[in-house]
Amino acid sequence: MASHINNTSTFPQTNTAxxxxxxxxxxxxxxNIPINGNLPQIQNVVASCDLSCHLDxxxxxxHIRNAEYAPKRFSAVVVRIRDPRxxxxxxxxxxxxxTGAKSEDDARLAARKNARIVQKQGYCVSFKEFKxxxxxxxxxxxxxxxxxxxxxxxxxxxxxxxLEPERFPGLVYHMYDxxxxxxxxxxxxxxxTGAKTRETVYxxxxxxxxxxxxxxxTPLQKAGENTNDNNVxxxxxxxxxxx
Length: 243
Description:
Blueprint: E1 41-50, H1 57-63, E2 67-68, E3 77-82, E4 85-90, E5 95-101, H2 104-119, E6 128-140, H3 150-156, E7 161-163, E8 170-176, E9 179-185, E10 189-195, H4 198-212, H5 219-222, H6 228-236
Antiparallel strand pairs: 1-5, 1-6, 2-3, 3-4, 4-5, 6-10, 7-8, 8-9, 9-10
């Protein structure tokens, strides 16, 4: 039987959710524009799929361009492609993870391109079970906002918030509607992770903004802002310390 890729898999569509009800100012007609008029930027889309065949990783690493395989460190072949710029983690079971995509469409395209790369090495590949696993977005309160009193925020929202500055210079907030995890930094930067759809990223950002704005820094309090925040902020999205 000849190798083939099954192109019949469907791509999950983003559903429009009902308006957030946290604050009267949070409601508007266009669900894709948060209350400050600034969309969070999608920084990373992580997806997975199944190639439906067992793979010889040593063979793949030897024959695929831009492939890396260090079995003592990680049990997958790492393949990087330029268009779209993504990284694929290919496991012996046939499971594949795509990371680094900037959109859901790019993640799906990268998954199909990597499936064809594997297919060309003589494997009977069938592209199945494509799924978005995580969408990471980032936003900011804007230059006009001085910052956030994370200590006060954590105290008032301790049921959902965790602040351990000796371990991580930001606040971790668990949101349940929509379901996402937010990393909130003193300087007003916010990272949204754990989302399955782009709409969830937008809704989570929209919902948290009017809440954190209730805890502003004064200019004097902000003067000693920790510059390490930027490095941790970049790493939380899989970005280098210097952009």
